[in-house]
Design a protein that fits this description.
It is a single chain. With 213 residues, the protein is an all-alpha fold. The chain is 51% helix and 2% strand. A hairpin with a 2-residue loop joins strand 1 (144-145) and strand 2 (148-149). The longest helix has 29 residues, at 2-30. It starts with a helix and ends in a 20-residue tail after the last helix.
Length: 213
């Protein structure tokens, strides 16, 4: 009888010890959720440098033109307006200085520090590429090359990667004349990634320029 008493007493003590142990751990784990009467909660807003990583103007909107711009920006720079890559390409959409000069932008620092200017530059260069590739868009849109359906937005994205000349070489050779940029990104991948977006409202203009004001 005495043995049974000791057995059950020990069992009760063990259960109590284990229960208290878990309660203590949970309390410690969750203690950071609570704020005492003598404490305060401090909140902050992003700095100017931090805010460049978040694009408030361009929410993702599917296959629209805005969605196209956002998809290109994320692929090129993760949406960072001030990014300069090891090859000297700049901004949210990664332009070279020669391309920028062709549309009337001469100041590197002004370009990097002006998000609105970068958006205008992207649209102007799309207009130029669409003018240069209008015949290819008409001829090849809807075809399958290297397993990828060719679309207008894919053609414009590929031109953004490698230039209109490289796009012409790729399409007219049925994909045999391939292109990769300095990071090894293929033109085929841009046809695939950015195909099917609505870029129909981009007006072809071989002489498109950006107004700085």
């Amino acid at each position: 009888m005495l043995r049974k008493y000791y057995f059950f007493a020990g069992l009760i003590l063990s259960v109590a010890f284990i229960t208290l142990g878990f309660t203590s751990k949970e309390s410690e784990k969750d203690s950071w959720f609570y704020v005492g009467d003598d404490e305060e909660i401090i909140s902050t807003v992003p700095t100017q440098d931090e805010s460049q990583f978040v694009n408030l103007e361009l929410p993702y909107t599917g296959k629209s033109y805005t969605g196209f711009k956002q998809a290109i920006a994320i692929r090129e720079s993760q949406g960072q307006y001030k990014l300069v890559n090891p090859f000297g390409y700049m901004g949210k959409y990664q332009f070279g200085m020669s391309a920028l000069r062709s549309i009337g932008i001469k100041s590197r620092s002004e370009f990097l520090n002006n998000p609105r200017l970068q958006e205008k530059a992207f649209k102007a260069l799309l207009s130029i590429n669409k003018a240069q590739l209008s015949a290819e868009i008409e001829k090849f849109e809807g075809r399958i090359i290297n397993g990828v359906k060719i679309t207008e937005s894919g053609i414009l994205a590929a031109a953004h990667l490698g230039g209109a000349g490289s796009v012409k070489n790729y399409l007219h050779s049925n994909g045999r004349r391939k292109f990769k940029d300095g990071f090894g990104t293929s033109m085929k991948s841009y046809f695939k990634l950015f195909g099917g977006y609505d870029t129909s409202h981009i007006i072809p203009n071989m002489n498109a320029k950006v107004k700085l004001n």
